[in-house]
Design a protein that fits this description.
It is a single chain. Helices cover about 20% and strands about 40% of the residues. It is of the alpha+beta class. It has a single domain (about 5-125), classed as Alpha-Beta Complex (Nucleoside Triphosphate Pyrophosphohydrolase), CATH 3.90.79.10. Strands 1, 2, 3, 4, 5, 6 and 7 form a 7-stranded mixed β-sheet that branches. It is globular and about 40 Å long. The termini are far apart. The relative contact order is 0.28.
Length: about 130
Amino acid sequence: MEMPKVGSAVIVENDGKILLGLRNKENAYGFWVIPGGGVEFGETIHDAAIREIKEETNLDIEILKLVCFKEVINLPAKYHTVVFFHLAKPKNMDIIASGDLSEARFFSIDEIKRLKTVESVEWALREAGLWE
């Protein structure tokens, strides 16, 4: 029996725009997501957030605060994760999508409302006070 995993995702905000990534893996393929990934054994949630954003988008970030967490359970897909969402600012803007993302870029909230996103995007942005 598998145990739930711990994930760390980052709401990277720059000039009122939010970084999203286009998912290219089985779970949520073709949906825009808040970038992040699994926390490795012995790694803090904070350090995982910084590492995952660097791996998936090439951005260096400054974490501002922990915003919220969400438990995501999808039994048919054998997916059970508790994801911690942080708010951060980018230190550079040299985006190069890789890993789980085929594309990554910044969007306004109005643009995000027109995208095909996973449910947690709106939820996390509301929790961060960014959804208008």
